[in-house]
Amino acid sequence: MLITVTRSGGFAGFEKLRSLDTSDRADAAELEGLAQRAVAPVADGYHYRITVDDDVLDLQDPGLSDDQRALIRTVLGEGA
User: Fold this and answer.
1) Virtual CA dihedral for 52, 64, 2, 9, nearest 10 degrees?
2) Residues 6+ apart with CB under 8 A from 45
3) Cα distance between residue 49 and residue 59, in whole Å
4) For 17, phi and psi rounded to 5 degrees?
5) Per-residue confidence (pLDDT) for residue 79, from 0 to 100
6) What is the mean pLDDT of each run of 10 residues along the chain (80 residues)?
7) Measured in whole angstroms, how far is the alpha carbon of residue 13 from the centre of its chain?
8) Which segments within 1-80 are labelled E, that is strand?
9) Disulfide engineering: 8 pairs with which of 4, 15, 19, 44, CB 3.0-4.6 Å?
10) pTM
């Protein structure tokens, strides 16, 4: 299994992209299980796309920050 993770943002705005091939690893089964659970959709969870001018962010609940949750509630008119 090939697993790729990209991290971007942060203070300096650097992007880091790394891939890992699990085929020759002793911990392959554990990593593959983590990967499969990480990308599985959350049952009954909401998905959000927030667009601010030209910036787009895709999110899934749970896992929203307090600020993201407040913005979503306000824009969708669901109280504060």
Assistant:
1) 50
2) 60, 61, 62
3) 6
4) -125, 125
5) 60
6) 83 85 94 85 81 86 87 81
7) 17
8) 2-7, 16-21, 47-52, 55-60
9) 15
10) 0.61
